[in-house]
């Protein structure tokens, strides 16, 4: 078993760092039901619920757990007693770098340390033990507000979990659960701020018919891997953000303006809310003092775009660490449908004389690590 010399002060320092990070942006609030399994000598699993508050790469989590089934033990004078053991933990968590193994799979490893209490309580006996623990885990988002996690914990006291007096002394446990975001914004599964629209809100219909959206996304997918080039508008020369979006829509017969700030003026305004945004919608991001980046929403918290910090056309998961930059800089969404093609053509002609001097600059999102694939 792994042994480390860790003092509880580590947990206090991590908590302070978490609070400082949370102060910079609205923190995430999550609820996580879970099951805990004891590999050594367990009579059954324990069920629990955790409440977490995250800011940046740090989080604070409080959790409680209780045995799924009653357990029997011997009290004074060998009197049988039925108990339902329970325990509680307060942990400081540090999330590490996220790894992408496909456009749909992003996982984030993390480490944690904290303080704990455990008890066996009945009408006849009461055993209580305090201690501390540490461990590591892995989080996998399944959408913008739901994810799963698993972790391994080592507990540094005689009673790993409250048990009968003569039970074995397990030193570790495995925890698995589901995480639901219930408030906040900014990181994994983060909500997007609502942008007030004087033009009103639109329905949940996609950018076009389902067939049109499918053709749009299929066309965009064909150019994944095309390198980034500022001012680029073709696969052979490379794309910048708006050049890529304009090229993809042109393949479907829809002509958009050249720059992302001008693309943000066409189509229908969409409220920046994941309950409204649909696959095929254009997402606009503010950088360098104005709208300077655009992406196509794919669904399931993913976008496809040409990004300088990502090396070219690629998918990005908005619930990843890198995705936080795009969430924090998103300011508008537009829905482009074939029904307004004539209007788009007219607008494109109006912006034609600006093509040479009105192109997008590079984004400033965290750069993609070479280890990611």
Can you describe this structure in just a few lines?
The chain has helices at about 10-25, 210-220, 240-250, 260-265, 325-330, 340-350; strands at about 30-35, 45-55, 60-65, 70-75, 80-85, 85-95, 100, 105-120, 125-140, 145-155, 170-185, 235, 240, 270, 280-285, 290-300, 300-305, 310-315, 330-335. The protein is α+β, with helices and mostly antiparallel strands.
Instruction: Supply the CATH architecture of the largest domain.
Output: Beta Barrel
Any idea how many domains? Answer: 2
Helix and strand element order: HEEEEEEEEEEEHEEHHEEEEEHEH
CATH topology of the largest domain: Porin
- Percentage of β-strand residues: 35-45%
Distance between the termini: 32 Å
Classification by helices and strands: alpha+beta
Structure notes:
It is a single chain. With 373 residues, this protein is an alpha+beta fold. The chain folds into two domains: 9-183, Porin; 210-354, endopeptidase fold (from Nostoc punctiforme), CATH 3.90.1720.10. The protein is built from six helices and 19 strands. The chain has helices spanning 9-24, 210-221, 241-251, 260-263, 323-329, 341-350, and strands at residues 28-37, 46-55, 58-67, 71-74, 80-83, 86-95, 99-102, 105-121, 126-141, 146-155, 172-183, 233-234, 238-239, 268-270, 282-287, 290-299, 302-307, 312-317, 330-335. An eight-stranded antiparallel beta barrel has the order 1-2-3-6-8-9-10-11. It has a six-stranded antiparallel β-sheet with strand order 14-19-15-16-17-18. The longest helix has 16 residues, at 9-24. The two termini are 32 Å apart. Mean pLDDT is 74; it is low at 1-25, 159-164, 185-209, 339-343 and 349-356.
């Amino acid at each position: 078993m792994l042994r480390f010399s860790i003092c509880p002060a580590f947990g206090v320092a991590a908590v302070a760092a978490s609070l400082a990070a949370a102060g910079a942006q609205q923190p995430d609030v999550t609820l996580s039901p879970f099951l805990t399994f004891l590999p050594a000598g367990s009579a059954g699993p324990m069920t629990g619920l955790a409440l977490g508050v995250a800011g940046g790469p740090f989080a604070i989590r409080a959790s409680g757990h209780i045995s799924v089934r009653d357990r029997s033990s011997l009290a004074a004078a060998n009197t049988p007693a039925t108990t339902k053991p329970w325990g509680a933990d307060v942990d400081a968590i540090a999330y590490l770098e996220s790894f992408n193994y496909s456009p749909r799979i992003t996982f984030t490893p993390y480490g944690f340390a904290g303080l704990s209490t455990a008890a066996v309580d009945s009408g006849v006996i009461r055993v209580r033990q305090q201690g501390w623990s540490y461990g590591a885990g892995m989080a996998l988002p399944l959408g913008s507000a739901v994810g799963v996690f698993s972790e391994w914990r080592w507990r540094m006291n005689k009673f790993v979990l409250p048990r009968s007096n003569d039970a074995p002394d397990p030193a570790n446990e495995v925890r698995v659960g589901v995480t639901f975001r219930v408030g906040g914004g900014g990181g994994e599964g983060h909500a997007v701020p609502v942008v007030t629209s004087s033009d009103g809100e639109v329905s949940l219909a996609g950018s076009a018919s389902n067939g049109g959206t499918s053709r749009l996304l299929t066309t965009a997918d064909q150019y994944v891997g095309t390198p980034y080039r500022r001012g680029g508008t073709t696969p052979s020369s490379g794309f910048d953000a708006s050049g890529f979006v304009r090229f993809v829509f042109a393949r479907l017969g829809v002509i958009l303006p050249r720059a992302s700030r001008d693309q943000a003026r066409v189509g229908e305004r969409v409220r920046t809310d994941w309950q409204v945004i649909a696959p095929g919608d254009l997402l606009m991001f503010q950088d360098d003092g104005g709208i300077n980046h655009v992406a196509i929403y794919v669904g399931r918290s993913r976008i496809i775009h040409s990004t300088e910090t990502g090396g070219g056309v690629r998918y990005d998961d908005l619930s990843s660490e890198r995705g936080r930059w795009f969430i924090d800089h998103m300011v508008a969404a537009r829905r482009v449908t074939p029904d307004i093609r004539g209007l788009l053509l007219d607008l494109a002609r109006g912006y034609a004389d600006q093509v040479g001097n009105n192109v997008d600059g590079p984004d400033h999102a965290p750069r993609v690590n070479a280890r990611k694939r």
